[in-house]
Amino acid sequence: MKSKLLLATALTFVAATAMGQGTELQYKKTPALNEDWQKPFPGFKIVGNFYYVGTYDLGCYLIDTGQGLILINTGIEGSFPLIKESIEKLGFKLSDIKIVTSTHGHRDHVGDIAAFQKVSGAKVYMEERDVQTLETGGNIDYRQTKGRGFYVYPPIKVDVKTKPGDHIKLGNTDLTIRQAFGHTPGAVSFTFNVQDGGKNYNVLIYNSDGINQGVKLLDSPGYPTNVEDFASTLKEQAAYKPDIWVSSHAGQFNLHQVYKPGDPYNPARFGDLAAYQKKIADTTRNYEKQLAEERATAKK
Ligand SMILES: [Zn+2]
Fold first, then answer.
1. What residues have their beta carbon closer than 5 A to ion ligand 1?
2. In this structure, are residues 109 and 247 in contact, taking their beta carbons and an 8 Å threshold?
3. Could you tell me the residue ranges of all domains in the chain?
4. Looking at the domain covering 2-299, what would its CATH class be?
5. Which residue of 56, 74, 140, 255 shows the fewest CB atoms closer than 10 Å?
6. Are the C-beta atoms of residues 246 and 206 closer than 8 Å to each other?
7. Ligand 1 centroid from CA 250, angstroms
8. How far is the CA of 211 from the centre of ligand 1 (A)?
9. What pTM value is reported for the model?
10. CB 78 within 8 Å of CB 107
11. Hey, is 95 helix, strand or coil?
């Protein structure tokens, strides 16, 4: 416990230093790791009032609540024009975005939140454990506890801090925040109901609990509870039975296998429960394998 307290103090100090010297921190452009992140992809209706507005691989979502729009994820910095085009071609206006939030504080999902916040005046909601990362433009990241010394993306002012079990309500929509802790300390999924054609759909925007390359489960001083967090998230995710599910990356929910631009509207294409359960089983197996390997190495 003492070490956790010390760590929390150290992180706060680092963050305070980073924020205090905000004007001195420089922005450093880091190249996209995957060209599919920046490739355009036409927006389309997933089900009812729920739309895909992301890039070829970065899952970004729009909900038309009847009293304004909710945007979930904004892609990497530079995605703004692609997402804007998708939103407008679907017949919506950026000025109607009232809430922007994200599945987790990595640059490929929050990189253009600041741009959307600026044009729409929307309020930014974020899980409290990823807020510091966003507010320092990715300078503070559990993978680099001393900070990087530069902003990775434009810093974001978070208006509302959330935690699992909280709800984001707007118009006809009530999003429940679900923990996806592990991938980042404050990663989340969202569940909500959509009505369409006399049917009710239980929708899941799922944040995959993959372990980024280079991340150590047993030696991650910036994230001391990651082993427990991964385990409890994977257990919780294994229990979901969504009617419709999508994810933070198109590849994680097989978008390009089940949908081609111009295909007719058919929500059922995103309802493959067996495929969802396989994803969770694979992710769990990878986590257990890496943990076992790290434990075996630690014993030597
Ligand atoms: Zn990530």
1. 106
2. no
3. 2-299
4. alpha beta
5. 56
6. yes
7. 13
8. 9
9. 0.91
10. no
11. helix
